[in-house]
Amino acid sequence: MRGTVSFKTCGSVLVTGANRGLELQIVQNLASGGFSPGKIIATTRNLSGSQVETYLMSELHLLVVILYVVRQDSIETCVEEVERLLDEDQGLNLLINIAGVNLEADFQVVTAEMTMENFRTNAVAPLMITKVICGRVGSGGKGAMGIQRAAVVNVSSLLGSVELNWGDRANVFKWYPYRTSKVSVLRLTSRCMAVDLEPDGILCVAVHPGWVHTDMGGSRGERRGAPLSPEESVSSVLSVIGALTAKDHGTFLNYTGEQLPW
Ligand SMILES: NC(=O)c1ccc[n+]([C@@H]2O[C@H](COP(=O)([O-])OP(=O)(O)OC[C@H]3O[C@@H](n4cnc5c(N)ncnc54)[C@H](OP(=O)(O)O)[C@@H]3O)[C@@H](O)[C@H]2O)c1
Predict the structure, then answer these.
(1) How many whole angstroms from its chain centre is CA 175?
(2) Which atom of ligand 1 is nearest to 24's Cα?
(3) Would you say which domain of life the source belongs to (predicted)?
(4) pLDDT of 157-200, one tens digit each?
């Protein structure tokens, strides 16, 4: 587990897909716990009836913006809104690309359409959102790499690791669209964005949140069920994010902070 949590020095955070799941839990923890970043921008594709809207109307300090992550027009509109929400001379400090889908399909049933849909949400969307945000809103503060300056956290999965998914494990989760999309997120983060954003001091890292009880992760505690609650996963993930430094740039980190193999 990592040490110090430095969100108090982070001026602004944007979280994608915050309608439910880990995405919503991140927003809740940031808004209500001891993390306390400056501005929390929660994005959701569906404001009406959204859980985020409920939190917005409660005591929590949140800014909510519509973002349908696979639509370029929605990304552009969202970023215009984010520009308005941030102070004039300040960029965004932390972008958490986490909105995701899992189209479970093995070799027998997988289709091109399923694979493309999974790719668009899990891999293409983080790329396009980061590109527009970094181009228009720019990076955050100055100084050493970390969330007090500027960081992009792309949520991948252990199932995206080539090295860790061989033998017995490769036989369990035969989800072609999901697994290939999460491999792509790792490459995109660690060997593409990390190279291009480094000159601007923007730290790029991929994170595995653990196997968590959500709509996607399934039930907790049953046989082969998710061992972690959203609260357990997110507390740990936020501790890792809060302690990011230059040595983490371009890596793939577990929710506990250890480096994972690609
Ligand atoms: N849960 C796990 O065990 C686990 C393990 C490893 C990695 N992960 C990764 O962690 C992330 C969060 O997973 P989760 O378990 O929280 O999933 P989840 O419970 O299914 O929630 C997914 C969230 O993403 C949003 N979303 C999906 N497509 C979107 C789109 N096109 N535009 C905007 N929002 C969209 C959903 O919004 P709507 O409500 O509008 O659909 C929802 O709020 C994913 O990237 C997942 O791959 C999860």
Answers:
(1) 20
(2) 43
(3) Eukaryota
(4) 999 999 998 887 777 788 999 999 999 999 999 999 999 999 99
Q: Which residues fall within 8 angstroms of residue 2, CB to CB, at 6 or more apart?
A: 239, 240, 242, 243, 257
Helices and strands (H and E) in the chain: how many: 9, 7
Cβ < 6 A, ligand 1 pocket: 17, 19-23, 45-46, 68-70, 98-101, 121, 155, 157, 208-209, 211-212, 214-217, 226
49 DSSP 8-state letter: T
Q: What is the tally of structural domains in the chain?
A: 1
CA 23 to ligand 1 center in whole angstroms:
7
Q: Which domain holds residue 63?
A: 7-254
Is position 2 within any domain? Answer: no
Closest C-alpha to ligand 1, atom 21: 21
Burial class (CB in 10 A: 0-12, 13-18, 19+), 3: exposed
Ligand 1 centroid to residue 99 C-alpha, Å: 5
Half-sphere exposure of 115 (CA within 13 A, CB side): 12
The CATH number covering residue 43 comes to: 3.40.50.720
Neighbours of 116 (CB within 10 A): 14
Question: Residue 199 C-alpha to ligand 1 middle, in angstroms?
Answer: 31
Residue 215 belongs to some domain of the structure: yes
Residue 6 reports pLDDT greater than 80: no
* Chain segment 56-93, per-residue pLDDT in tens: 766 667 899 999 999 999 999 999 999 999 977 788 99
Q: Answer yes or no: is 200 within a domain.
A: yes
